[in-house]
Amino acid sequence: MSIEQQSAHTPYAPVPYEHHWLTSTEQLDAAQHFLSAMARRRTIRDFATTPVPFILIEAAIRAAALAPSGANQQPWTFVVVSDPDLKQHMRAAAEAEERESYERRMSQEWLDALAPLGTDWYKPHITQAPYVIVVFEQAYGLEQGSDGGEVKIKHYYVKESVGIAVGFLLASLTHAGLATLTHTPSPMGFLGTLLNRPANERPYLLIPVGYPAKEATVPMITKKPLEQVLIHFAGKQESPEQSR
Question: What is the pLDDT of residue 240?
Fold first, then answer.
């Protein structure tokens, strides 16, 4: 069944939207609280082995799965790995690919760009962190056809949709007081094989999750100031508070 045929059998059925209204003070408090939490987020490469309640991981993935997506097709799968042996296999495969990249594939320009971050092919975070969340993008959907075979369903804006979901996921994990790292070993095909994912799923990135080790350090870097990332075309009728 094509997406057009599928849509023909799924008519638009609107339902009332109930907005959760906040006072102006509550709005500002909520915005500042979220900003403060996200300002503490850093990429962590040294994790403690302290156990993390799985309910926190589950809640974060629930939040990620609420992200908007092209045609509401939700083209993502979140695979959570806590098995030590499987994490060790993932680490070995990732380090093999990363070592090849650092020693042969990456240009000097790329290596120079990474130098201030202190990264290399050594990836202990994969086995240190209690959980590793591997995010897969569903390049297309699969449904069972009338003849019993599989039918491909076209997906729209897959990478954009999964990117938004990952943003939700990282924000939720950070808000829960957990540390994360976004890792994209290149190439990542080994993840699909190790985790037995179907042909329509492609690795997007892996995220070790846990608490930072006591001795954890982070690179001394800064973020761009607001005036370099925010452009506002203000209307003539806006108050100073609105245009800030």
Answer: 58
